[in-house]
Amino acid sequence: MKYIYFVNRFSLRDETDAVINRIKSVSEEFHRDYIVEVSGSAEEAVLAIRKYHDAGAVLTAVGGDGSIHHLLNEIAGTNNLLSFVPCGTGNDFSRTCLETLEDGVHEVDLIRVNDRYCINTVCFGIDADIANDESFIHNRFIPRSMRFNAGVLYHFLTYGKKRYLTVEWGKKKISRHFTTIVAANGRYYGSGYKVSPGSLLNDGRMEIYLIDSVGKIKMARLILSMKNAGHLKDPALRMVRTKKATVSSPVPIRVNVDGEPLQADHFELELIPRAVRLDFDHRFLERVREFSPT
């Protein structure tokens, strides 16, 4: 089977050539038949991906969670397989795969968010504000591993927004101010925050975490406790498991879907079971990661 690697120079910048060379070298070690497609923008990347519509190949995102998201939304419903080489800011989807999947091809669930597909997490509220803040997430002067933390600190100091949202699932309906809401298919977000430690990629359900409106000190404690899943014990948090939910706002808001922004005032969330085939080979990723950007 042919592997097609999609590399975006805008994401990797000065590291692009080194990453490409390592991918080529390791692919030859693993006797892979491969092509490397290099683009300079999201628009060019989409055109490159569409050349392989229904090619029956393994289409591989080289980058972070946002790169996986864009590739996923082009290949969902085709006969192509999805794969990835994690070289981004957070690489949170990769963390879930390493914890929960054996090497091989897996049919994994997706969350449909209006007209988009999500493979990892959807977040509303302060989490979305942090993840959507490009002044931190794409800041070349802040180490990759510290960008989300820098955003947390800034938004903690400037926090003043409270989101009045209506959440519905099953026969339940809650309308109130929330600090954050996270719908999870994967376990991690924000560069290693373990928001949903029990999530599996093929269990046919999503976990939704609802955190009531809280003060700054409580908010900071909650966010920091997510590193070790300590937030699950906090009374301000409610967790539900469901296949469908809606989140509505009186005004349009920007949420974050797999690291990418999405704006609307109404969001339909639906778990689509076994919606895409994922090719996962941690041995290959380990060989590439030795030379990937850190």
Q: What is this structure's SSE topology?
A:
Elements: E1 2-8, H1 9-12, H2 16-29, E2 33-39, H3 42-50, E3 58-63, H4 65-75, E4 81-86, H5 92-100, E5 104-113, E6 116-118, E7 121-125, H6 126-132, H7 134-137, H8 147-158, E8 163-169, E9 172-184, E10 206-212, H9 216-225, E11 237-242, E12 244-257, E13 260-280, H10 282-289
Parallel strand pairs: 1-2, 1-3, 3-4
Antiparallel strand pairs: 5-6, 5-13, 7-9, 7-12, 8-9, 8-12, 9-10, 10-11, 12-13
Helix content: 25-40%
Q: How much of the sequence is in beta strands?
A: 35-45%
Succession of helices and strands: EHHEHEHEHEEEHHHEEEHEEEH
Low-confidence stretches: none
Structural class: alpha+beta
Briefly, what CATH class of the largest domain? Mainly Beta
SS field, number of helical segments: 10
Global shape: globular
What is the CATH architecture descriptor of the largest domain?
A: Sandwich
Number of discrete domains: 2
The first-to-last residue Cα distance is 30 Å
The largest β sheet comes out as: 9 strands, antiparallel
Say how many strands there are: 13
Tell me what the structure shows.
- There is one protein chain.
- This protein has 294 residues and is an alpha+beta fold.
- It has 2 domains: 125 residues, 3-Layer(aba) Sandwich (Rossmann fold); 151 residues, Tumour Suppressor Smad4, CATH 2.60.200.
- It is 30% helix and 38% strand.
- It is built from 10 helices and 13 strands.
- Strands 5, 6, 7, 8, 9, 10, 11, 12 and 13 form a 9-stranded antiparallel beta sheet that branches. Strands 2-1-3-4 form a 4-stranded parallel beta sheet, sandwiched between helices.
- It starts with a strand and ends in a 5-residue tail after the last helix.
- The model has no long low-confidence stretch (mean pLDDT 88).
